[in-house]
What does this fold into?
Amino acid sequence: MDKKISRNDPCFCGSGKKYKKCHSDLHPDSRAAHLIEMHRNIEEKVTSYQKKTGIIPPCHKGCYSCCFDDFSISEVEFEYMMREMKTWDSKKVEEVYNIALEQCEQIKEERPETWEALEKMVDAQDIEAFRKQLIDHQKVSKNKFPCPMLDQETKSCTVYDSRPLVCRTYGTTHVESNALKSVELCENISDSVKHANETPSADLEQYEASFYLNLTTPDGQRVLQRTYPIYYWFKIFYKRTGKKIAQYNHYDNPLNFNQSIEQADLTTLRGFNLI
Ligand code: SF4
Ligand code: SF4
Ligand SMILES: [Zn+2]
It folds into this structure.
């Protein structure tokens, strides 16, 4: 699988701009490119659903209580936010690291079990251990603090264009589990079952995402990758380099961005001695 695109072709993201003037830092078959394509697909799905049914969920600019949820995201999603942070002033980046690291300390003190689950290395192939970790994590769905990417003054997302999938879908779509049992999603959406009847499903997108967010060995085996809350990703990236800078994984080697999934998988799997 190797998508070819020339510098003067329209960018794969659908912006209408030339590739060289848009996402030229991303290989069109990279994890990041697939992520962006999915963002566009989900946005189109939500817009056309709302146009067709006239049902608009209560999400609006300035509504941010879901930014207190303990959302877990994948590494490429975190790196995609870092890509935007690379355009920021270094002081602002450092401030966000400081907020996130402080939040880690708060979790460590107030929710030692959650912290232990985050710190625990789980064998990527141990599906049961993965599931348990996910369930443990879901027990506490709200934090006392908001996401480190929320601007405390304007109450808006500082990486809005690069925000993760969960932030794009939480109030505007549903997944099957929401439709089966009634739970409160946020202060404005009190019944997940009713919400599921009024929004398009994002199950297909979630399923497709699992193929490019995880690793695949040359003989077709899937290697699951951990997801973490945003504050914890900052801790991982800081621990790796000792620097509070906008950076990619692999010591700022942008594997997820400038390599095809196939190449990035091979490099990562070799790095972990998995092949
Ligand atoms: S999910 Fe709830 S809290 Fe979040 S933006 Fe929508 S209405 Fe607001
Ligand atoms: S990334 Fe942005 S939208 Fe998502 S939780 Fe953080 S502040 Fe909110
Ligand atoms: Zn583009």
